[in-house]
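Handout, section B. The chain below has 123 residues.
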Amino acid sequence: MADDRLSFKQMCAEFDVTPRTLRYYEYIELLQPDREGRSRFYGPRECARMKLILRGRKFGFQLEDIRQWLLIYENEGTEAQMRAWVELADGQLKELDDQRRQLDEARDELQGLRDSVANGLKG
């Protein structure tokens, strides 16, 4: 076993994911670990992909978008990947702005209702 590879258990601990999550990412072909018997080992490529997957999830991207983006990199290279990333990021920024607007509206409405009830309790 090469020193730069992580076992399944180490990968889960390193990236703070459940075994179920890691198996799922492999099932949908986001990750392709080396297999030796029943053991799985994750090299630098898989660790880098995992960082990108988790970053994408943090920003709210769907797994299918992340998978497509990773495929572009493999098939077309870095420039194509960066162009795809900019396009995905633009869409996600719009989505996050919409979510923020909705949250602000809900918060304002809740604050108004709370203040109304609180004022009614004083009188």
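Note. The chain has a mean pLDDT of 90. Compare this with the example in section A.
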